[in-house]
User: Fold these one by one.
Assistant:
Number 1:
Amino acid sequence: MTTHFLMLILILLFAFLVRSLDISSKWQAAAMINLSLGFMLLAAFIVSQILKGLKLPLISGYIFTGILAGPFVTGFLTFEMVERFSLIDDLALSFIALAAGGELHLFAIKKQMKTISLNIIFLTILVFLMIGLFVLFTGRYFTVISDLDPKALMVLAILLSVICIARSPASAIAVINECKAKGPFTDMVLAIAIAKDVLIIILFTFAMGISKMILSGQDSFQTGKLFVLILEIIISIGAGLIVGKGISLYFDRIRHDFSLFLLFIAFSVTRISFWGNEFMVTHYDVSLHLEPLLICMSAGFFVQNFSSSGSYFVESLDRMSLPIYVLFFSLAGASLNLQSLVICWPLALSVVAVRIAGLFGGSWLAGTISHDPPIFNKCAWMAYITQAGVSIGLAQLAGKQFPEIAVLNTVVLATITINQILGPILFKISLGLVGEAGKR
Amino acid sequence: MKIIFVFLIIILFAFSGYHLTFRDIRLPRFARRFYLTGTEYLFLGLLMGPLFFNLLDDITLNALDPLCALILGWIGLLFGFQFELPKLRRFPLEFFTSSIFESILTSIVVFFGVYHMAPYFYDMGGPVRIMVSLSLAAAAACTAQTGLSLLAPHVIKEHQDNILLLRYISSIDGLSAMTVLGIAYYFRMLYFPLASRLSEPLWGGIIVLMTCIGLLFLYILFLSQRHDEGELALIVIGMVIFTSGTASLLNFSPLLANFFMGFCLVNITREKERIFQMLISVEKPVYLLLLFFLGAGWIPVSIWIVIPAAAYCIFRAAGKLAGGYAVTHISPGMKQYPEHLGFGLLEQGGLAPAILLDFNKSFPFDVVPMAISVVLVAIIFNDFISAHFMSRLLKEEK
């Protein structure tokens, strides 16, 4: 522990001394990015090791370092730098999605199909209803939303409650890997997190359509959009299966440099999806958004379950996962909006509490009906708290579409900040309580 | 969007090129030489660069500067790892002194040659002339091993003593190149001092040295505990990036700073073997990326560049030949080796492109594109002629 503190002090000293130098050339400006990247990697690693001594998950250390180094606390990483790191962010997310798909075992899902389905249904319904009703009935008591008119409040309630259903698969996979967890509880949580990631996009599209109806006074729902969305999901899954086949062929035929190859795949999928979306809009005026996350998850799922290289695939991903997790979560920490938390902490805390109640109720009900072990029913809620990128993206989208409820973004960011800090810790505890940590 | 595509292309090239170039490929001897040295990546970079397809335009190249620094740092660290003192002691001391003598002599010949020739081709001030001459002299001191690896197994067996010596020299002579590059950076500090009270070059030098020692201490602290493979990779990647960033911010070379780290680490840490394996596992892709970036920044100013390039080649060859001749006559332990040893040292790949990229990025003078062109043409030329001279040397031995 003393060595870790010494390293932390030393690296902080270095970083701040060197950073205080004047920049006089482009090369030095680029060097500043390098310095910041290196600093984030090393500092996040050290902090996570310190927190590990306190039994906290490693990703809490990465996130905590990001928050401290980010633009809202020390300003070591500026807004521009965080923005410039988006390339790494996308790459990391696709890579994590590949890993998440690779962790899904078809036989385990089949065995637990009933409990997984019930969990998804109850968690979705309860969280949606409880958050929605809470915002509708108590909205006037919170300063940040008290002046919204009833229609806007209704839309805010719908969209916020849909966003609250989401759960970050990326942090789930990171904690599972760190704890080397294996077992029915782990499989169930991962499958639910991934399924909810798909479901949330469909539900959000519904919610956006309904919100538009409420705010503009239209009386018909645009079903065309829903059709396009379902088409996008099907194409994404199909593309993922093709990529998965490509990966398994590579594994079977070439059999070396998997890590480098997977890095290339993760990056290409993300960028080609974005490029494809832009291309379709520009040239054919068709808005067809392929989901890189879904593509990567399907690819990982295919390799794990329909090829002979599943375990080798997961091992290859594991070998290079640490630097990617560290960068991804520390950058996620740096982009957490603490200002939002300061502005609306009472509402954010209440939403977090109500969401937890919904998660507990939903998972307890589902577990009881499907006769899961009692310890699962008691602990499952702890596994679903963390939220991240998808929720932020959806909130931003809604904020742009409906300026009347621009506050939604602030509320979501504040809520995510709390969930992102609390979630990994509770998930790690739950894996310990159900006895699946260290079983791999 | 362009930067994304370029990034994709770069990864693809690094990856596919690695497999095409270094694995299971049988091409005609002439083409094989071209492939094996990775020279095609220089041309691919040139094609992608501002002169042709402009996929790698100036803005994109600037945006990818951090990647360049990472590559330079990685190569520097790996080169430093070659200087493990107990391993070096297994060879006769004459090998070491001969390598250093030969490369220093080559640097001196090239330095004075370039210094006096430069005004005929480009009008530049005294300090700039010194820095350019020193950097080009540093690049000239390096020798590549690719020519040796092209030799047939029976040839290697037949001439094993000479080939061992040539391999040794080509691994070690980069040390002189690094020293000469360090001197160029000293002059750079005179020319571009750090801001505020650190403006004196002496202070600048002391600060760089203290910083390197501090970073080394940080490395040692990290490595004082046993880490698994993933953690070790994270530490090495993080430290390479951090060291490169720190060095560049201090107006110093990422290549040299990481070389210093590598040299110290290989001699003091227990984890040297594991780190070395990690560095070497991506050596080829990193090297090809280096050539690609160098090619992209290459501006072949005019066809007449071949004249200074030819002169540069002559200075370098003169230095190598004189160096080889001297060491085989001066040192008693070296008299058994052929006096035209320099013929086997003409190949110039290896560390030289890394020195050039470092020079390209850190020395913002108008003459730099021309200087780079001169050395690149010389590298390509040396790639082609070195095989002939190598076989001549080996025949002479018979």
Note: Chain A touches chain B through 48 residues (CB under 8 Å).
Number 2:
Amino acid sequence: MTPVRRKRLIIVVVIVAGVAIAAALGLQAFRKNLLYYFTPVQVAAGDAHVGQRFRMGGLVAMGSVQRSPGSMTVHFTLTDMQKSVPVVYTGILPDLFREGQGIVVYGTLDKQGLFVAQQVLAKHDAKYMPPEVAAAIKKAKAAQQAQIAAKAAS
Amino acid sequence: MNSWHEFLSMGGYAVYVWPAYGTALVVLLANAIWPGRQQRALLKELRRRSLPSEERPT
Amino acid sequence: MFIWFHKLASPPYFYKFAGILAPWLAWLSLLVIAAGLYGGLWLAPPDYQQGDGFRIIYVHVPSAWMSMFIYMVMAVAAAIGLIWRMKLAHAVSAAAAPLGASFTFIALVTGSLWGKPMWGTYWVWDARLTSELILLFLYVGYMALNHAFEDRRTGDRASAILALVGIVNIPIIHYSVKWWNTLHQGATVFFGPRAEMPPSMYIPLFIMIIGFMVYFAAFILKRLQVEVLQRERNTAWVRALVAKS
């Protein structure tokens, strides 16, 4: 490599490294602002700006969904398996909204600790499978559970 | 998929699935056609310039 | 082998070589993409949660993958062009940019059309979507800067530096779903005991990625022919070529 080319190579490396370091520092500084949502644990720890609107993500707790008859209002609990927050929402829910599903809610926390959501977005996981397989897994799990229960009873 | 009807309706998601594929088709086709046309136009222009000025079609 | 590469880097040989290879690759890509679409839209089973709506994956993921891959090609070629002043390298960057921008655009639009029914919104400003949008701006910025100067060489060097600077965005796009809480889901695991997708679903996906790669190869060659013609318009070989045609 000629000295001129080596010099150019060094300049190119310095540009890329410099920008990478600047970007890393910048992203580090804005880390929290780049979060699209907070988890219930973060909310409990006081990370979210309570009183202001913010987003909270987690799973819809099993058996927590209660629809009020005759209205679009829905009550459920959002959990990250460590902390839970009760949520109320009025409006149309996305197709993927169901118990056990990851979702993101946008709204405010009131004084009683109830999250009043203005928007509910469903977050889907990275898992894909045919419906028959999902049904088979569910069946196998239920059978396993029944077996454990039978063992415990005997 | 078992039938054409099932295929086209995409389980009720047709309004999202087909525009997604349509957009991709249009963009990729445009990218496939464009460079060939540009090449022909450029060759034509270079040929016109290579002729002596009195022979140049106006 | 080395001599062959050296010969290939000379514009007249490259022009001829690209002219022969591009149509073959174009037809091959059509075949592979058709096979991938048949597998993805017809053969693959529906998803247990998203039904047939998940089939947008077969155009969304390959496009998003290409958008990052082409950026790497563009940036590496830009670096080679800056360091070794190789004639063809800057042409490769310039030819890659519009294709990269196209795939980025497709990834954004198809993602948006997928997000509406599943998430409940066309767009959110999460780290993954925002960094992919920045990628589109980088491509557009590259193309604008490349043509902004009277002298093509100045434009090549200025835009090459932009391409290099923008390379930091690539790991950000890739790891955004890990580094931050995003609405966009994480990367799917395809193989091993913790695989999150069965072969009947991922095989068409990989066929589509291969199809898009071949498509890219075909049309970057075609675009390079145009770039080479433009850049070498005053040389003897182009004059001879024009006279022959």
Note: The longest helix of chain A spans residues 3-29.
